[in-house]
Amino acid sequence: MEEKTISNKTIERLSIYLRYLTYLQIEGKEKVDSKELSKLALVSPCLLRKDLSYFGEFGRSGYGYNIIHLKNAIEKILQTDSSKNFIIIGAGNIGKALANYVYFDKLNFHLKAIFDNNLKKVGKKIGNLNIRSYSELETYLDKNNIHIAIIATPKESAREVYLKLTEKIVQGIWNFAPVDFPSTKHSYVINEHLSKNMLVLSYHNNKMS
Amino acid sequence: MEEKTISNKTIERLSIYLRYLTYLQIEGKEKVDSKELSKLALVSPCLLRKDLSYFGEFGRSGYGYNIIHLKNAIEKILQTDSSKNFIIIGAGNIGKALANYVYFDKLNFHLKAIFDNNLKKVGKKIGNLNIRSYSELETYLDKNNIHIAIIATPKESAREVYLKLTEKIVQGIWNFAPVDFPSTKHSYVINEHLSKNMLVLSYHNNKMS
Fold first, then answer.
1. Hey, are the CB atoms on B196 and A98 less than 8 Å from each other?
2. pTM to 2 decimals?
3. Which of B85, B92, B157, B164 would suit a FRET pair with B179, their CA atoms being 20 to 30 Å apart?
């Protein structure tokens, strides 16, 4: 299979297929046809077949897809077949919620450390991790192989954290602070906008009423 | 201005412009030019001008945009100039984090109630709201004008909640449970995939290394 660059939209859909393949596997199913999978993923059967055929032959029409085979193939494409380490900076409500989000671990993303600059929080436990002082972040990144860092600080501290993470070449940065940071040559940044979906809902709200 | 349907992508960008216009206003600025605003929003100046010109004349080139004028216009388009009520079902980590997210209130989205089916949680406080029993949800929806409902329950309970919300015609549903629900004629549904962005980061991670 030759190396291809996949759009973020396709990655999103693949991650949704992966979700349902995992559920079907847990239910003890062995095969799924494109109609059933597309219905679960809320994607048209045509688009599903297009997505999957792009990466090679996963099944023959009329026979359905072998669930384990297809799941392994998607995991390989998304590279979740190897485990990834992530850290969280900011132990507030968002940081805590992400630290306790069980589905990351199931996808082979492992939370290794949580940092906060509030000394009252340092040493307290989230799950089985003690919150570390933010002052340790730099040394920690030098000594540990961290693939992804989540910024869950207030707006005011976020830029300093971002500059530190890019300086230390953390390759994936997921920013929940309400400010937008650009990707750099070595760090890919996703700026999360929690308010955005609220506004999308609000807009459609008025269209429907 | 004639009624136009705006794509979700455009709504997202407008919500980002709104964010920075608010920050600039807080800083006491009166005008902003498209170059500065596009830099903050990480959007090309060309796309910014295109987005804004689509809704009428907000400024003359070379003079910059009047911040309050532009902010009011975007608020009108996104219909955040009227206040919206929302509720959260599920008082777990995600529910609590969203309940405490201060930026919703700033955008005129007001949290009115939180529900949980765990009787140990019922009556406890999140912010200044007491957690209500899930059994009250139906009556609550009959008596109150709720625009948006957030599903923050485990996967197992999510479908029941979704069916109740669509039955009661809640117009906006934001689902954080790891399962996808379709929009209906009267309810617009956004399925949030927290894992999705982790997978996008992971994918780019490997591309960069």
1. no
2. 0.90
3. B85
